[in-house]
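User: Let's play a game. I give you a shape written as tokens, and you guess the letters that built it. Ready? Here's round one.
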């Protein structure tokens, strides 16, 4: 076999695909340099032909080197059949085992090895290894630990999961609806220049009063406090923790007790800056941070003096939160303190001794900056408290789902999560997308992928922790680019997206863990399955009750928009997303104009083609509305009117899909989208605020009528 053939064999064994088909049906081969780079990022040597042969042999032998795999995932009610790989010469031995259930209960047993049939044979040098299976029967849901005594001890984690994710009971006999908003974009009469958790509660009250079931939010992940202008919620510093700039500072209990904080916020300079931020069209993250963080520091000092040092009930609540968050919170707080110490969050630029969170140097600095660590723990505690309060309000108002969170596909390469768990990430690769009609150069999203091999080696503990953190207080969780559970398009660090390749992930195991965490957290799972979707993927996730994402703009086939009754039942439908034009912007071609202004079209002809295609889509949309007798009476031409948005919402409200999410931007007639893919600093991504405060928006009779009509349509 030639060298490239052997390299592709190694890639296939490791999960790096040798080719992919684009949406035009064109086959793209993975370049050898890409294959070697991605194998290296997986921790597999492939720089030379000798490396390739050696790594291929190592991978072939790997399953036979241990008596038990690192993890076994099975479904509830199915018998657990544990694979045992033991030397043939031990076939007459008696093996003993113990099983520690998650509840703490202990089961033990023993059997002669030769009573278990041999399924396969492997070799380690001269030794022959036999594969047998030990059947334990069905086990309860959960994470269990199995230990084997057979010459030398071996252990594995058993994960027993439900076949399906959680569905809210009311979804079985009701079609739900909710409102989707960018939290930072919300305005209110009392905000501090950015939407906050207090505004979220106000939004919950208004939507619940209109019989809405959910509030969909952008990812609330922690961003970089030392670089607040890096505002993309999809390139976070951590997916395990929250962005404290969303805190409603005046709602923190310590604010009422802290005269220093109140005096600071009453100051003339503070008030002038505050008014400027409130009136601004865009969120000025840097100035928001300059206002909020000093006040929050005073609140932390007040909490320490009045509660933590007194050991009262609030101190106990803080300690309980810190204990629950555990080592991950300690690492995250340490990362933030070190970012301040070294004046950059880009941890590869820190002293080498601080690249390892468990190093002596890091421990010494953790002690030196103990007060700052306490402050960062406090911020996360208050985020958790305010989100919990919002979730409780939603439940109390009878919302079927409540908070609908969003989990970004991964984290920034300079993130706290990558620093804390470098072995779990492929530092030499970035996640992106291959070239397609929306971006002919492909996309590099700048986030670092998890290593599928290491995830399995660690029994999916980190993946479960990630889901748990984001399902906490949520009734639904959207999984950004859920196709990544099966495969991700990865690009060698520094290469162009056109040089990328797909890397496989253990979809069966990941879906099972998601189903287990979904059930335990009573959290609906929604997969963002837009773009290039592998064959059979939607059906596989649908069988596990993971809702599909269906966007109105994309439900256009052969010149016709799909009718409401043609939408799948197990789906979350919407007009648009944060990466696409608002309905107003779509109608007036604002997204096309923005791309033209930024030079994102290669030629004038390409721009003209986009405008021509949009005109055709508008005619098709009007025809779809007419077919449902929803064409607005004041819509004789192609001019935009708010009644057109009302008609489109009524159209989608008729769909049989169990969830319909309405964009707040569309209710309010916003013309500009939240994020323009392909742009970085040229467009105000993740910054644009609503044109009006919530108090005014929700008192608007036209908006009230629109939401009432949606609720009435969904109730039929």
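Assistant: Ready! My guess for every position:
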């Amino acid at each position: 076999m030639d060298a490239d053939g052997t390299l592709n064999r190694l890639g296939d064994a490791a999960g790096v695909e040798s080719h992919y088909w684009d949406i035009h049906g064109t086959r793209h081969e993975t370049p050898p340099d890409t294959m070697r780079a991605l194998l290296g990022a997986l921790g597999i040597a492939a720089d030379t032909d000798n490396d390739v042969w050696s790594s291929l042999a190592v991978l072939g032998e790997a399953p036979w080197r241990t008596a038990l795999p690192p993890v076994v995932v099975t479904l509830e009610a199915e018998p657990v059949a544990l694979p045992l790989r033991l030397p043939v010469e031990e076939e007459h031995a008696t093996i003993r085992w113990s099983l520690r259930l998650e509840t703490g209960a202990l089961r033990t047993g023993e059997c002669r090895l030769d009573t278990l049939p041999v399924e396969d044979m492997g070799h380690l040098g001269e030794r022959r290894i036999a594969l047998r299976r030990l059947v334990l029967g069905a086990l309860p849901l959960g994470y269990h630990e199995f230990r084997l005594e057979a010459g030398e001890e071996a252990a594995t984690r058993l994960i027993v999961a439900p076949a399906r994710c959680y569905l809210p009971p009311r979804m079985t006999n009701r079609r739900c609806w909710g409102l989707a908003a960018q939290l930072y974009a919300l305005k209110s009469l009392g905000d501090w220049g950015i939407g906050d958790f207090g505004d979220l509660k106000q939004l919950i009250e208004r939507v619940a009063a209109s019989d809405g079931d959910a509030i969909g939010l952008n990812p609330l992940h922690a961003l970089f406090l030392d670089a607040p202008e890096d505002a993309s919620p999809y390139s976070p510093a951590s997916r395990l923790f929250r962005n404290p700039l969303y805190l409603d500072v005046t709602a923190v209990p310590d604010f009422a007790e802290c005269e220093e904080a109140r005096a600071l916020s009453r100051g003339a300079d503070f008030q002038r800056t505050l008014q400027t931020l409130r009136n601004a069209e865009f969120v000025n993250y840097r100035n928001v941070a300059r206002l909020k963080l000093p006040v929050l520091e005073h609140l932390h000092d007040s909490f320490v003096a009045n509660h933590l040092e007194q050991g009262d009930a609030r101190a106990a609540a803080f300690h309980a939160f810190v204990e629950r968050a555990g080592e991950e919170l300690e690492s995250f707080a340490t990362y933030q303190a070190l970012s301040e110490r070294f004046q950059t969050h880009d941890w590869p630029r820190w002293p080498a001794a601080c690249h390892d969170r468990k190093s002596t140097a890091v421990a010494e600095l953790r002690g030196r900056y103990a007060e700052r660590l306490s402050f960062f723990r406090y911020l996360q505690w208050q985020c958790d408290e305010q989100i919990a309060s919002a979730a409780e309000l939603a439940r109390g108002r009878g919302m079927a789902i409540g908070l609908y969170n969003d989990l970004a596909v991964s984290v920034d390469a300079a993130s706290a999560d990558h620093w804390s768990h470098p072995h779990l990430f492929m530092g030499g690769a970035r996640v992106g997308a291959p070239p397609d009609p929306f971006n002919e150069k492909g996309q590099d999203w700048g986030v670092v992928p998890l290593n599928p091999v290491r995830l399995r080696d660690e029994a999916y503990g980190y993946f479960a922790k990630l889901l748990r953190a984001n399902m906490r207080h949520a009734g639904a969780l959207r999984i950004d680019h859920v196709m990544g559970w099966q495969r991700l398009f990865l690009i060698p660090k520094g290469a162009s997206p056109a040089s990328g390749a797909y890397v496989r992930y253990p979809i069966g195991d990941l879906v099972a863990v998601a189903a287990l965490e979904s059930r335990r957290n009573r959290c609906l799972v929604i997969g963002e399955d837009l773009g290039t979707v592998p064959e059979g993927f939607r059906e596989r996730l649908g069988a596990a009750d993971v809702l599909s994402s269906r966007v109105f703009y994309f439900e256009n086939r052969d010149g016709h928009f799909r009718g409401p009754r043609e939408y799948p039942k197990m789906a979350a439908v919407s007009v648009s997303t944060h990466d696409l034009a608002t309905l107003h912007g779509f109608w007036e071609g604002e997204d096309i104009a923005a791309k033209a202004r930024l030079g994102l079209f290669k030629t004038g002809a390409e721009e003209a083609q986009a405008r021509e295609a949009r005109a055709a889509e508008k005619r098709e949309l009007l025809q779809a509305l007419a077919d449902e007798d929803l064409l607005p009476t004041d819509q004789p031409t192609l001019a935009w009117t708010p009644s057109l948005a009302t008609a489109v919402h009524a159209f989608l409200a008729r769909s049989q899909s169990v969830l319909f999410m309405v964009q707040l931007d569309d209710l309010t007639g916003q013309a500009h989208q939240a994020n323009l893919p392909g742009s970085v600093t040229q467009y105000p991504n993740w910054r644009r605020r609503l044109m009006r405060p919530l108090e005014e928006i929700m008192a608007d009779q036209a908006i009230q009528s629109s939401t009432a009509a949606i609720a009435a349509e969904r109730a039929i």
